[in-house]
């Protein structure tokens, strides 16, 4: 039995208007933490604790939920290694890797328009 949580989608289909593809994409990768999680996974496989340290002030429960949603949407894979203590690694799928140009562009935009704005008097 699959126990992967499913999140309620806003729409069943995203082809009803010209902007719905954007809405569908943002539904999958949007939110406070998903973009940051995905950005850190661009560097390759990470364990849960490594992601949590990289992201910062995220709670364990929230990180677990975000990772499960990204896995359910086919953006990342979760690999459990049968060792003691258990080792779990997360890695972007090809679908997740396709987000790399978007995430890098967001980083550049943030550096130019958010971080530099804080430095300006």
Automatic annotation (TrEMBL):
CDD domains: HTH_ARSR
Domain HTH hxlR-type: 20-118
Gene3D superfamilies with a match to the protein in the record: Winged helix-like DNA-binding domain superfamily/Winged helix DNA-binding domain (1.10.10.10)
GO biological process: regulation of DNA-templated transcription
Record flagged with keyword S-adenosyl-L-methionine: no
UniProt keyword annotation of Ribonucleoprotein present: no
GO molecular function term, any single one: DNA binding
Keywords annotated in UniProt: DNA-binding, Transcription, Transcription regulation
InterPro entries (UniProt xref): ArsR-like_HTH (IPR011991), HTH_HxlR (IPR002577), WH-like_DNA-bd_sf (IPR036388), WH_DNA-bd_sf (IPR036390)
A family per Pfam: HxlR
Source domain of life: Bacteria
Name by which UniProt lists this protein: Transcriptional regulator
The organism of origin for this protein: Paracoccus zhejiangensis
